[in-house]
Design goal:
The longest helix has 21 residues. Helix 7 runs antiparallel to helix 8, helix 14 packs parallel to helix 17 and helix 16 packs parallel to helix 17. The protein starts with 10 loop residues before the first strand and ends with a strand. By secondary structure, it is an alpha+beta fold. The radius of gyration is 32 Å and the shape is elongated. It has 24 helices and 34 strands. Among the domains are: 91 residues, Rossmann fold (3-Layer(aba) Sandwich); 155 residues, 60s Ribosomal Protein L30, Chain: A (2-Layer Sandwich); 161 residues, Phosphoribosyl-aminoimidazole Synthetase, Chain A, domain 2 (Alpha-Beta Complex), CATH 3.90.650. The strands form 9 sheets. Strands 30-32-29-33-31-34 form a 6-stranded mixed beta sheet. Strands 3-2-1-4-5 form a 5-stranded parallel beta sheet, with helices on both faces.
Length: 774
């Protein structure tokens, strides 16, 4: 696979903004090996620890463009909405500088709520009923004629203060007068949107966009009101957490498609390319999701709760958005949850107190970070508050309760005079989780076990990734870059799906699970190999009556090890808990592997003929077949027993993983003059039923009994179980896991190339397509 050339270069980056969002962005950018130098304009005391603050206002467009030119900035990332509304992206693009953020035309989705509502109506994006007014008198008359609760929105940008939820008609009239007559919000309130007030859970769904492709982030939930219980005035946001349990993965995927992708497609249809972050504020009503608003940048404080979960390189993602290359760029997310609690100053949001000393920032855990929002460093070195929302205390953990607890533990160590914050951040998420647990528990399902299992196996799965993996675990589906196919003459995909069968019952009895993961991967690799294919990626399936996270992690660890050995990516799968379908203690493991082969190298080759030799390659044991019979034969035998004739305990032999023949045979098959004409994987059905699968109708196979040493385990099964030779050959591989068909003159060179003991077990003969045992 080709390596993306972007990964080879470092970038000088300018980050625009000064709040908690910008500190979180700087923190994530600083983790990238592709960062050469980071400037932040104007930044805060927190960003100064990660890069160089520049005393240029975020809304000084000429100053920012001039600085970017002077310092050879290669990418500008815009945090707040103000510069976008003023055309910063347009000015930078005009100067030939890449910018992660939408143009002024695209940013109308946020800068003009009247434009946004009309746009949604034109493109069928679900939203609330609304009307737009520039006349106070007309707006007041409209209020008199409706009988449902409303939201009043200033159409222009109002720094998070332009959305009011009046509790009465009288309050609604007062808000209209403040916006449109008293001009409390200046030009932002000269045009207002009166919108139907909807009921339901509010969700923030953000996505990266490059003008064509959209890749959604985990859904988050913000807390706008100042006080616990969603009381008090609206603020810029008092905290957030992600992912939000109220918006499960399937719903988030649907909303990404029907809202975010629809918006990007709609803008493109209107001649506007949208690149950057697109943020949909949604409400989940009884009648379905509705869009409350669009924002054209990272949310604040949602960013503080999202970026700690981002596994991928933010610089690569941002650059891909500017280049239209997002579809082939990996965007991976960590398992678990993240929560951010905002610490605000006294008087916020009306009149914030500044200059108050802050203490206790040093005492925090490794999974917790303090994002500075409104802070400054005095000449004395003392850290003080510098505005309303001062700090964002952010923690991430395996689940939401743990993340919230760790954030609160950090808050307990921090203080400044007049500090105010909400103590119920995430409470709705916890209630939703509890409701889900109760519903699932009634059905016998424990969702926490599934989450824990995913957390345990995340790192080992990602150890199998290569440059072709665009998205894997944590995504809705695995994405694999197929660009390498362009270099092939006639590429053919080869796929195999299989299960392990009743071998899993012996593994469960012995409590040894990792070999099962090796079994399923290697079985599928061998099935693809016999058609000449090399593995590309693997998908697994695990289902049980009740999930045991450690067991799942062991099995997946085995899968990952087998995938790494085969240079195969484990890009996803399914872990399901299904009481009732599986009885207590039962589980199943299956998988699908996709491989690749050139059309003219597909096996078997057409040149098979009488006299061709059958070369047997040893198996590592029963592999994954015949275990129903094995369990019956050894039902009364302790698994730890070392039976006469065996050198190891019985359990070791029964759980010996299925052998992969890829490393042994791949060099031979890669030779353009390869002497291997066909391969037969000896699985269920043994030698008798698997060899005919590769033969033409005019050829049979004659096998000479005694031409290879049958392992002692199979002899013991025959004797203890009273199994006939014919049944043994139909059920087991008898020590031969793969058969290669070769011309007699090739025998010497093939055996030398294989480098291990092999046996000529028979030959092809004219006649019916079947196996003759002699």
């Amino acid at each position: 696979m080709k390596t993306d050339s972007r990964s080879l270069s470092t970038k000088n980056i300018l980050l625009v903004g000064s709040g908690g969002r910008e500190h979180a962005l700087a923190w994530k950018l600083a983790q990238s090996p592709r960062l050469a130098r980071l400037w932040i304009a104007p930044g805060n005391a927190g960003t100064a620890e990660l890069g160089s603050n520049v005393l240029i206002s975020a809304e000084d467009i000429p100053g920012l463009v001039g600085f970017a030119r002077e310092r050879s900035i290669e990418l500008v990332i815009v945090g707040p909405e103000g510069p976008l509304a003023l055309g910063l992206a347009d000015a930078l693009q005009g100067a030939g500088i890449r910018v992660f953020g939408p143009t002024c035309a695209a940013a109308q989705l946020e800068t003009s709520k009247s434009f946004a509502k009309g746009f949604m109506q034109r493109h069928g994006i679900p939203t609330a009923r609304y009307a737009v007014f520039t006349s106070h008198e007309e707006a007041a008359r409209y209020l008199e004629g409706i009988d449902y609760p409303v939201v009043i929105k200033a159409s222009g940008l109002a720094a998070g203060k332009g959305v009011i939820l009046p509790e009465s008609r009288e309050e609604a009239c007062r808000v209209l007068a403040e916006f449109m007559v008293a001009k409390s919000l200046g030009a932002a309130g000269q045009e207002v949107v009166i919108e139907e007030r909807l009921e339901g859970e509010e969700i923030s769904l953000l996505a990266f966009a490059d003008g064509v492709t959209v890749k959604a982030m985990p859904p988050a939930q913000d807390h706008k009101r100042l006080l616990d219980g969603d009381r008090g005035p609206n603020t810029g946001g008092m905290g957030a957490y992600a992912p939000a349990p109220a918006c499960p993965q399937t719903l988030a995927e649907k909303l990404s498609r029907t809202v975010l992708q629809a918006a990007v497609d709609g803008l493109r249809a209107e001649g506007i390319r949208y690149q950057g972050v697109l943020y949909a504020g949604l409400i989940l009503t009884r009648d379905g999701p509705r869009v409350l608003e669009f924002n054209c940048r990272f949310g604040d404080p949602e960013t503080q709760a999202l970026l700690p979960l981002l596994e991928s390189d933010l610089i690569e993602i941002a650059e891909a958005c500017t280049e239209g290359a997002l579809a082939r760029t990996s965007v991976l997310w960590k398992a678990g949850s993240c929560a951010c609690v905002v610490l605000a100053s006294a008087g916020y949001p009306a009149a914030s107190v500044s200059g108050v000393p802050i203490h206790g920032l040093e005492a925090r855990k490794g999974n917790c970070i303090v994002f500075h929002a409104a802070t400054r460093r005095e000449k004395s070195g003392e850290l003080v508050s510098a505005g309303g929302r001062v700090l964002g205390i952010t923690a991430w953990a395996g689940d939401l309760p743990s993340a919230l607890r760790d954030a609160q533990d950090a808050i307990n160590q921090i203080g400044f005079a007049g500090m105010q914050y909400r103590r119920d951040i995430g409470a709705r998420g916890l209630r939703h989780l509890q409701a889900m647990r109760s519903a699932y528990a009634d059905a016998g399902v424990t969702i926490d076990s599934g989450n824990h299992a995913v957390s345990l196996m995340r790192d080992t799965v990602r150890s199998t990734y290569n440059s072709a993996v665009v998205a894997g675990i944590g995504s809705f589906g695995g994405l694999y870059d197929a660009a390498a196919l362009r270099s092939m003459r006639r590429p053919v995909l080869v796929a195999s799906t299989d299960g392990i069968g009743t071998k899993i019952m012996i593994a469960a009895q012995a409590k040894r699970y990792a070999p099962l993961g090796v079994d399923i991967v290697n079985h599928c690799i061998d099935d693809v190999l016999v058609q000449g294919g090399r593995p590309l990626f693997f998908l697994d399936y695990f289902a049980a009556s009740c999930l045991e996270p450690q067991m799942v992690a062991e099995i997946v660890s085995g899968m990952a090890g087998a995938c790494r050995a085969a240079s195969c990516a484990l890009i996803g799968g399914e872990t399901a808990e299904m009481p009732g379908v599986y009885q207590p203690g039962e589980f199943d493991v299956a998988g699908t592997l996709v491989g690749l082969v050139e059309y003219d190298q597909i096996l078997p080759r057409p040149a098979l003929q009488p006299g061709d030799l059958l070369l047997g390659l040893r198996s590592s044991g029963p592999h994954t077949n015949g275990y129903s019979l094995l369990r019956r034969v050894f039902a009364q035998t302790p698994l730890e027993a070392v039976l006469p004739g065996l050198e190891r305990p019985l359990v070791d032999l029964l759980l010996e993983p299925h052998r992969s023949y890829l490393p042994l045979l791949a060099p031979l098959l890669d030779d353009p003059t390869a002497p291997v004409k066909a391969l037969a994987h000896i699985t269920g059905g043994g030698l008798v039923e698997n060899l005919p699968r590769i033969l033409p109708a005019s050829l049979g196979a004659r096998i000479q009994r005694g031409s290879w040493p049958v392992p002692a385990l199979f002899s013991i099964v025959r004797e203890m179980g009273g199994v006939s030779d014919e049944e043994m050959a139909r059920v087991f591989n008898l020590g031969i896991g793969m058969v290669a068909v070769i011309a007699p003159e090739s025998l010497g060179c093939v055996q030398q190339a294989l480098g291990e003991e092999t046996w000529v077990i028979g030959e092809l003969v004219p006649g019916e397509r079947k196996v003759i045992l002699q």
